[in-house]
Known about the structure:
Elements: H1 2-36, E1 45-47, H2 54-68, E2 75-81, H3 89-100, E3 110-116, E4 123-128, H4 138-147, H5 149-152, H6 157-179, H7 190-226, H8 233-246
Helix pairs in contact: 2-6, 4-7, 7-8
Amino acid sequence: MKQTGLIKSKILALLLFVGATLFVGGFFSHSVEAAKLPASPSTYYYDQVLLLNDETKQLVFNKNESYENTGKKPQVIMAVVKSTDGESIDEYASELFDKWNIGQKSSDNGLLILYAVNDGERNVRIEVGYGLEGAVTDSQAGAILRNNADLLKSSDKAKVNKGLQQTFNAVVTLIDKEYGYKLDKNSLSDEELERVQEADNSGESIGVVIGLLVFTGIVLFASYRGRGGKGGPKGRVVLTGLLFHGG
């Protein structure tokens, strides 16, 4: 009995040692990865490759300074890096967003526009804090980047700056609309804003259609099973009715 207890104690000790090693190793690995990320900038933009021109910097600075005088105090940071160090632009943007603590901690209302040269691939990501996801949805962020893709993918610095400026103006227009802030000379026109918002409606419609199709499939399957495997026109009527209702 004593020998069995001793064996159990050794196994438990071994498991605790392995668990602790994995925990410390994972923590250390995470710390090393975090250390590779650039330190938080002292202003509202970061430029690792000297890409941003004075006009872009001033645009970002002025808008964020105006936000500082509001109750919500959202932040929109622009960052340009040489490389994402082998990570996807999505992962890198998320890690950078967290490290820099963008936006107000209580409301998580920050947004990061990340541009990575990545050996000429020129990847761009709009990372949105939870507090702004209602203002700038994934569909809208995607539409903004697609609208400016030709400029952002250019090797011409002037064109890239124009693309970044237009991307910045688009997201802050959506934020201003969400918070009821006064629009300014750099805000999107009604037509431009409508194009971005249409992308969001399109995304919602696709989601509704997929949901309806899944639901319809369940209904038809249940109906088929309930009738002992006999199908018929009734199933098609249900499908058609649901699809037209969804439209």
